[in-house]
Amino acid sequence: MEFTKSLVKGKLIKRYKRFFTDVKLNKEIVTAHCPNTGSMKGLLHEGNEVYLLPNNDPKRKLKYGLEIIKSRNNFVGVNTHMANKIVHHALENNLINELKNSDSIRSEVFFNKETRFDFLIEKKKQKIFVEVKNVTLFRNKDTAEFPDAVTDRGSKHLLTLIDAINRGYKAYLFFLVQIQNMKYFKIAKDIDEEYYANYLLAKKAGVNFLAYKCDISSKKIFVKKKLKIIND
Fold first, then answer.
1. How many CA atoms lie within 13 A of 157 on its CB side?
2. What's the CATH number of domain 80-229, 3.40.640.10, 3.20.20.370, 3.40.1350.60, 2.70.70.10?
3. Could you state, in order of their start, the residue ranges of all structural domains in the chain?
4. Rounded mean pLDDT, 61-69
5. Which of 47, 79, 100, 231 is most buried by its number of CB atoms within 10 A?
6. What's the pTM value of the predicted model, to 2 decimals?
7. CA angle, 173 as apex, 120 and 230 as ends, to 5°?
8. Which of 21, 1, 3, 2 is nearest to 12 (CA)?
9. Mean pLDDT (whole number) for 133-144
């Protein structure tokens, strides 16, 4: 995925009220929309380099949106609304080895009245649900982790993927690692023990888990390489 406009570099001051980020651009301080309501654990240190996407929409009060934070020498894509677009691009361009050459790709498909998954893929008459999780947490130099906070919604998705398998679908949980220079991925079981327990249940039930890191720059973000999942 290429950014529609050139990103503007600044310095992070603070994130507050979930949706707002104050950023210093040269000598000016601007408030940018933060398209990530998660904890963004480890990323919000004052002075971190950030990249903003400008917009000219007169209907929008904020003229910038936060896209990338540079933390500990790694670019991190923080716009959760971009995650499905990045994965859709990867599916269409066969960048995910396990899901290559699909016959059809549909987005935001309901599985039941309460849950819809990010993608429904059809491949050789097999129907495959794919749920995407955006990953921005890293606590050492080469290992990405998920989740960065307790996620009841994430646990619900794991249990529903098990239900999908029981109804004849194939199921994937795709961890989109929007962090440069990662080599491994793991579930942060110390942050959410219940999620880790449900991960083990889902794995045993036949849910497929994939983690791919992105190539990230101020011009584009795209799926690049599979990471080894190192949980027991």
1. 22
2. 3.40.1350.60
3. 8-77, 80-229
4. 95
5. 79
6. 0.95
7. 155
8. 21
9. 96
Q: Say what the pLDDT of residue 56 is.
A: 82
Residue type, 206: G
Give how far the C-alpha of residue 209 lies from the chain's centroid of Cα atoms, to the nearest Å: 14
Q: Please tell me the distance from the alpha carbon of residue 111 to that of residue 15, in angstroms, as a whole number.
A: 35
What rounded mean pLDDT belongs to the chain?
95
Q: What is the dihedral of CA 212, 215, 216, 218, to 10 degrees?
A: -150
- DSSP characters for the chain? -B-SS--EEEEEEEEETTTEEEEEETTEEEEEE----S--TTT--TT-EEEEEE---TT-S-SEEEEEEEETTEEEE--HHHHHHHHHHHHHTT-SGGG-S-SEEEEEEESSSS-EEEEEEEETTEEEEEEEEEE-EESSSSEEEE-SS--HHHHHHHHHHHHHHHTT-EEEEEEEE-BTT--EEEE-TTT-HHHHHHHHHHHHHT-EEEEEEEEE-SSBEEEEEE-EE---
Residue among 158, 163, 183, 186 nearest 173 (CA): 158
For the record, the structure tokens of 193 come out as 């023990």
Q: Is the Cα torsion angle 202, 229, 89, 83 positive or negative in sign? A: positive
Residues sharing a CB contact under 8 Å with residue 45, sequence separation 6 or more, in sequence order:
12, 71
- In single-letter form, the type of residue at position 73 comes to N
